[in-house]
Design a protein that fits this description.
The protein is α+β, with helices and mostly antiparallel strands and 313 residues long. The longest helix is centred in the first third of the chain and has 76 residues. The termini are far apart. The structure holds zinc ion (ZN).
Length: 313
């Protein structure tokens, strides 16, 4: 049998102490000692691991609480945000309706965001993380959809207003001359023969050479002599509007010329079939003669003030 021999040799001539250990026993002792050390270590580290885990759990609980609070706050904020969005939707619809455009949000109340419901959960452990993420995704897509609808709503209004402004420039709203109204549009007794006749325009009287202005933007389609009108300018404004300025003295524009609202056209005169210096002003809309007064805006009603003064004298 194989053995290990351990000898102890003292310094003097005393007896040498010797022990023999079988190899198998040597390994048994070593492995056993190793196992005892391992078990001892496990026994010591056990309580240490438990403490670490306890600390970890406490930390996770705190983080969990803090996360839950953050989510609840986020949900509250989303609720407030939704309230503001609903107000904006109402404003957008009102602005659309005021501009004769169809509302976008009326009848679409189902667009309102649903709550995510975290505030009702005691902790996050009961909340399915994937369904929560899904809820938030739904809410954010609803917000995006609403914002896009709002954008399109306000864009429609801007477009309409731009068109209105453009149209406004082409509607004959400004007085074509200073002066006083010497004859209105409609049936009247003829100043020439006393017979009943239809007066096709508005007569504005003033001193010779009073400037005549374009009532709106447009193209001069006629500038020259035309029968009873004498020297006349005809302007096409677009949007179905046309204006005529008769009995003029001098003509300051040419046929084909583009004129802006208020632009000088020439001077007041007595040309054609006329009883004195005045402007015979006509408005034609969609091919029909209309009362020019219908379009003249009160703010620029210099003529009526002139009439008041005249009547007061
Ligand atoms: Zn007239």
């Amino acid at each position: 049998m194989k053995e290990f021999t351990v000898k102890v040799i003292p310094p003097s001539n005393r007896r040498v102490w010797q022990i023999s250990i079988p190899v198998s026993l040597f390994w048994t002792v070593h492995v056993g000692a190793g196992l005892i050390i391992i078990f001892a270590l496990v026994d010591i580290s056990g309580p240490l691991t438990k403490a670490a885990l306890k600390g970890e759990i406490a930390l996770l609980k705190t983080q969990n609480k803090s996360l839950k609070q953050n989510y609840v706050r986020l949900e509250e904020k989303l609720g407030q945000f939704d309230g503001k969005l609903v107000e904006l939707q109402e404003i957008c619809d009102n602005v659309l309706i005021l501009n004769s455009l169809p509302p976008i949000f009326q009848g679409k109340e189902n667009l309102s965001m649903g709550g995510i419901g975290l505030s009702e959960a005691d902790d996050l452990s009961g909340v399915d993380e994937s369904s929560m993420t899904n809820d938030f995704n739904i809410v954010f897509s609803q917000v995006e959809l609403k914002l896009n609808l709002l954008k399109s709503g306000f864009y429609r209004v801007v477009e309409k207003m731009e068109n209105s402004v453009q149209k406004w420039e082409h509607v004959p709203t400004i007085w074509p001359a200073d002066g006083w109204i010497s004859s209105k549009f409609g049936w009247r007794k003829s100043p020439f023969n006393g017979q009943r006749e239809f007066h096709t325009g508005l007569d504005i009287a003033n001193m010779p050479s009073t400037p005549i202005k374009a009532a709106a933007n447009g193209y001069v389609v006629f500038a020259g002599w035309f029968g009873v009108y004498g020297n006349v300018i005809m302007i096409e404004h677009g949007f179905g509007y046309e204006t005529r300025y008769g009995h003029m003295d001098t003509i300051g524009v040419r046929k084909g010329q583009y004129v802006s609202k208020g632009q000088y056209l020439g001077t007041m005169g007595d040309s054609g079939r006329s009883t004195g210096t005045h402007l015979h002003y006509e408005v034609i809309h969609n091919g029909k003669l209309e009362d020019p007064m219908k379009y003249l805006i009160p703010e620029e009603n210099k003529v009526l003030r002139g009439v008041t003064r005249l009547h007061g004298q």
